[in-house]
Amino acid sequence: MRCMIDTNIILDVFLDQEPFCTASKAVLHLCETHKIVGLISASSITDLFYIVRKRLQSVDKAYAALEQVMNIVGILPVTPEDVQTALLRHARDFEDCLLATCAAANHCDVIVTRNQADFVSFGVPLLSPEEIVGSSSNRNLIH
């Protein structure tokens, strides 16, 4: 199962954001153990670096976080067409719109997010971290 992982899931783990980090860690564990194919967009990398650097006040910790991410999930390209499609949608949250557009263009099976309201209208099924973790324990999601 190809899963686009919302940037917030990764931030939950690296910033130890309660009460979300336990379920988010479980999602990344599924990616790391190849139970699901975890993917993020190339644009998420810059968002992750910026937010982790700002919150932890450390460039070194931000780089270390990105290195960990790249060992766990794959990076999908963001094309000019993806950007144009996202711009034309005039969504309330452009970053989420671009992530969803990238997920659709790269044939992701689901978007894993705890913020489903921002992704409802993009045509890619949504699962919360708890749902994907529960699904993987109840059936085989291995790609």
The SS-based structural class is: alpha/beta
Calculate the terminal CA-CA distance, rounded to whole Å. Answer: 5 Å
Computed CA radius of gyration, to the nearest angstrom: 14 Å
Considering the protein shown, what is the CATH homologous superfamily?
Answer: 5'-nuclease
* Level-1 CATH class name: Alpha Beta
Order of helices and strands: EHHEHHEHHEEH
The main β sheet shows up as: 5 strands, parallel
Strand order of the largest sheet: 3-2-1-4-5
The rough form would be described as globular
Uncertain stretches:
none
Q: How many helices does DSSP assign? A: 7
Strand tally: 5
* Number of separate domains: 1
Strand content: 5-15%
CATH topology: Rossmann fold
The share of residues in helices is 55-70%
> In CATH terms, what is the architecture?
3-Layer(aba) Sandwich
Instruction: Kindly report the average pLDDT value.
Output: 91
Describe this structure in words.
The protein is α/β, with parallel strands linked by helices. It has one domain (2-138): Rossmann fold, CATH 3.40.50.1010. The chain has seven helices and five strands; from the N terminus they run E-H-H-E-H-H-E-H-H-E-E-H. The chain has a five-stranded parallel sheet with strand order 3-2-1-4-5. Helix 1 packs across helix 2 (21-32), helix 1 packs parallel to helix 3 (42-56) and helix 2 packs across helix 7. The longest helix is centred in the middle third of the chain and has 15 residues, at 42-56. The radius of gyration is 14 Å and the shape is globular. The protein starts with a strand and ends in a 5-residue tail after the last helix. The mean pLDDT is 91.
